[in-house]
Amino acid sequence: MDWVGLRSGNRVDLIRLRMAPCLLLALLFGPAGRAQESAGSYSSVSAGSSASATAKKSTAGPDRVVLKVGDVQVTEAEFESRIKDLEPQGGDADSASVSEKDRRNLGDDYASVLMLSQQAVASHLDSSPEVARQLAIARMQVLSDAEFASLMRQAQPTPQEISQYYSAHLSDYDEVQVRRLFIWKRGDDSKDGVALSSQAARARADQIRQTYALGTDVKKLSEDLRKSGQGLLDPEPLTFPRGELSPQMEKVAFALKDGEWAEVEDTQARLLLIELVKRDRQPLTQVSARIEKDLQDEKMEALLNNLKKNAGIWMDEQYFGTAVAPVPSAERRISVPPTELQESAKKGESNHDEQQK
After folding, report:
1. What distance in Å separates the CA atoms of residue 92 and residue 100, rounded to the nearest whole number?
2. ∠351-353-357 over CA atoms, to 5°?
3. Other CB atoms closer than 10 Å to residue 88's CB: what's the count?
4. Which of 24, 57, 98, 332 maximizes the CB count within 10 A of its CB?
5. Is the same domain home to 143 and 250?
6. Tell me, what's the pLDDT at 329?
7. CATH number at residue 252
């Protein structure tokens, strides 16, 4: 486990990821610990797609014994309830031979697990310190995951809560469509014959904007500028929700009116201007899943923190070290990978540098 990530990342996501291998453990080895249960202990099941297809061909009920290992009998319902999440999904429903082959392999694996678990009990391996330790850990993990899943259900936000959150944070879902104009510049000692001086770069930018304002085909204008090697102009605007632009560019972009241009950057290497093509807002239907996850994570962290407080957890700081403050939710949302705009800007500079070599 990435303990550094556990301290600094989203604890809810990390715990959620941890649950996946434990589910596999429970499905495969849970039956081993219950090998002496009654054969008819499971009375109902929701089978997977291939399981349903096979079941329809049989007139027997779910209590039909389909597998035996020594004196232990396994019913159809018991088998399907324990392996349904492991069955191949999304296959061709008419491919009966493939389905039966997969089912046979699962049956062989299941029988092997039961056989080995019975042999382990007969050999008294279940009383060995190491096996007892592993069984205790597995039990603790299964119970922990069950409680975590229960808390996640409690933390599930209602549609009304999602709608209320959206209404209270409307500006967070604003987005802008921007068009960028890069003009490459050269320093006083540069031998680059294509890139322009600061004065010439600004004049070239003004000339392109004037031509653009006259209604010239922007794709042709973009292609001509690219071929000249003097800069780049987006042929199509790029859309960015609030929070995905650099702070400087976001401040400029969201302050503009539709159709306005503004200078964002003027360095020794380039001049960068942007046009606000359109300002819009993401609808609730588009962001509801993200809001739902954020709200659920916040509720989940509160529930976990409350449980920790009431549980009276104590840790020896001399052994474990001092606690590290968690990263606030707002900062986690800002710490995202480079945006398309940032990556495109880097790519544009790289292409320009390659052209000049």
Report:
1. 12
2. 115
3. 15
4. 332
5. no
6. 54
7. 3.10.50.40
| Residues 6+ positions from 233 with CB-CB distance below 8 Å | 179, 180, 181, 182, 208, 212, 218, 221, 222, 225, 226
Whether 347 maps to a domain, the answer reads yes
Which string of DSSP letters, residue by residue, matches 184-235? EB--TT---SSSB-HHHHHHHHHHHHHHHHTT--HHHHHHHHHHHTSEEE-S
Per-residue model confidence (pLDDT) at position 323: 78
What's the rounded Cα separation, in Å, for the pair 26 and 60? 28
Q: From residue 281, how far is each of 135, 170, 233, 247, 287 by CA, in Å? A: 53, 8, 25, 19, 10
pTM to 2 decimals? 0.62
Residue 93 lies in a domain: yes
At which of 91, 120, 151 does a domain end? 151
CA distance linking residue 288 with residue 303, whole number of Å: 22
Q: Is 330 helix (H, G, I), strand (E, B) or coil?
A: helix
Please name the residues in contact with 64: beta carbons below 8 A apart, sequence gap of 6 or more: 58, 75, 76
Residue span of the structural domain in which 203 resides: 173-283+337-356
Spatial separation of the C-alpha atoms in residues 111 and 119, rounded to whole Å: 12
Q: What is the DSSP pairing of strand 270-281 with strand 72-75?
A: unpaired
Please check the confidence at residue 33 and state whether its pLDDT lies above 50: no
pLDDT tier at 32, thresholds 50, 70, 90: very low
Q: Which of 151, 185, 218 is the last residue of a domain?
A: 151
Positive or negative CA dihedral for 38, 39, 40, 45? positive
Residues 132, 236, single domain; the answer is no
Q: How many structural domains compose the chain?
A: 2
Q: What tens digit of pLDDT does each residue of 72-113 get?
A: 999 999 988 887 755 554 444 344 555 777 888 889 999 999
Please give the C-alpha separations between residue 179 and each of 174, 258, 260, 266, in angstroms, as whole numbers: 17, 11, 10, 17
